[in-house]
Amino acid sequence: MPHHRRKVPDRETLAAHLASGMSIEHIAETYEVGVRALRIHLDRYGLIEVRSSAVRLAEEALNRAPPPRAARNGDVRFREDRVTFMRDFYMGGAFQLRQLSLPRVSMHVAEIASKPTIGGSHVH
Fold this sequence. Notes:
alpha+beta, three-stranded antiparallel beta sheet, 124 residues, elongated, 3 strands
């Protein structure tokens, strides 16, 4: 015997379900429709903002991630040729303390100043 899917309800019914706290998955199960199809209807009715699955997964990972630690003295080191920051990077499900070295801004300015402009003259 073929399985017949139920029709997605109207906007007001869906809005009431969401307002009552029903999850999208629960609504889809109740009306025997796919979650993806229901999301399309909810977006069309303006009840949710559809995000890609990659964005949803990234948001869920960030919500589970512990907060980064507070900055301390010594987290920024100034050297002649670079500035080194100690930063927490979220990698592999946890924060790891890593160094991030960047050239000093004066080095960038000096390099730009040494290059000729379109007209052939140097920037001074």
